[in-house]
């Protein structure tokens, strides 16, 4: 009797790779984008709330917010570029010391300073637009402040949920800490500016 040949038939890979997907690969751009958007939202909203504590002028609030948007986006981009460039230098030096032979594979995993900087700047500007747009069409001062807080609250919850969704982390915990942090920043800025303004400083 002839021996039976063992033929191995390759099994097609399952298109659904979610179970084996390494979500840490998203960490670089996700961290830059989510943090940038949250910083833009909270920083500009806090600046506008601080000005709103001592001035009823809508133009002053909007100009302050716009200046904060431009300055913050530039600062985030430069800071992220420097930070990620330093990380890149460290990893390249580590690869050279270890004599890595598969450079093409390694390059795909190396951090990208320009990508991180662009993501931070764009995300910051995107987040900063929320309080700016919320304040642009409201004439009454108190209503304007209320609308800004409401818009920022909604955006904070969304950013917290979105970051948790992409990173597959608990959504409630993420939303809670982002929301509370944003509220605290606006309240502290508003309160201290009001205090200083009322004392004539």
TrEMBL record:
The annotated topology with respect to the bilayer is: Multi-pass membrane protein
Q: What is its main location?
A: membrane
Places the protein is found = Vacuole membrane
Q: Which GO terms describe its molecular function?
A: iron ion sequestering activity; iron ion transmembrane transporter activity; manganese ion transmembrane transporter activity
Pfam families, per this entry?
Answer: VIT1
Q: Which UniProt keywords apply?
A: Ion transport, Iron, Iron transport, Membrane, Transmembrane, Transmembrane helix, Transport, Vacuole
Q: Which reaction does it catalyse?
A: Fe(2+)(in) = Fe(2+)(out)
Tell me the superkingdom of the source. Answer: Eukaryota
**What GO terms in the biological process aspect are recorded for it?**
intracellular manganese ion homeostasis
Q: Where do transmembrane segments lie in this chain? A: 29-48, 60-78, 116-138, 145-166, 178-197
Any GO CC annotation of this UniProt entry: membrane
The record's family statement is: Belongs to the CCC1 family.
What does this chain do? Answer: Vacuolar Fe(2+) uptake transporter.
Q: What name does the UniProt record give this protein?
A: Vacuolar iron transporter
The opening ranks of the lineage are:
Eukaryota, Viridiplantae, Streptophyta, Embryophyta, Tracheophyta
């Amino acid at each position: 009797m002839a021996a039976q040949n063992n033929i191995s038939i390759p099994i097609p890979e399952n298109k659904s790779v979610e179970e084996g997907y390494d979500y840490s690969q998203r960490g670089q751009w996700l961290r830059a984008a989510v943090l940038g958007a949250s910083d833009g939202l909270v920083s500009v909203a806090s600046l506008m709330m601080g000005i709103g504590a001592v001035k009823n002028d809508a133009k002053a609030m909007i100009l302050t917010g716009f200046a904060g948007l431009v300055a913050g986006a530039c600062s985030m981009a430069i800071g992220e570029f420097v930070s990620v460039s330093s990380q890149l230098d460290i990893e390249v030096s580590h690869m050279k010391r270890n004599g890595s032979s598969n450079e093409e594979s390694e390059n795909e995993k190396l951090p990208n300073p320009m990508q991180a900087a662009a993501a931070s700047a764009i995300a910051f500007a995107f987040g900063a637009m929320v309080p700016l747009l919320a304040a642009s069409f409201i004439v009454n001062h108190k209503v304007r402040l209320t609308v800004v807080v409401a818009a920022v609250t909604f955006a904070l919850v969304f950013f917290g949920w979105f970051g948790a969704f992409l990173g597959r982390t608990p959504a409630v915990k993420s939303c809670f800490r982002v929301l509370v942090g944003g509220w605290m920043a606006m309240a502290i800025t508003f309160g201290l500016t009001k205090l200083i303004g009322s004392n004539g400083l």
